[in-house]
Write a structure and sequence with these properties.
By secondary structure, the protein is mainly alpha-helical. The protein has helices at residues 2-24, 32-51.
Amino acid sequence: MAVLVWLLIPLAGGLVAGVWGTWATRRQTGVGGIADAAGVRRYDRFRSAMERSPIPVSTFRPASGERAPADG
């Protein structure tokens, strides 16, 4: 009987892993479309900010105690 109990432990673990795997890979439906649209808008704002031309180095002022960047 003790052998059967020891065999049930990995079987139960496999069953739990199978149920979790099925749940974790299920298709997401419902309200997710609204959240996705907001994420896309934030990503577009991020991309447009990164595509802007950088501020020239000569316009930066070093904080007190820092060296000025060398132009060159």
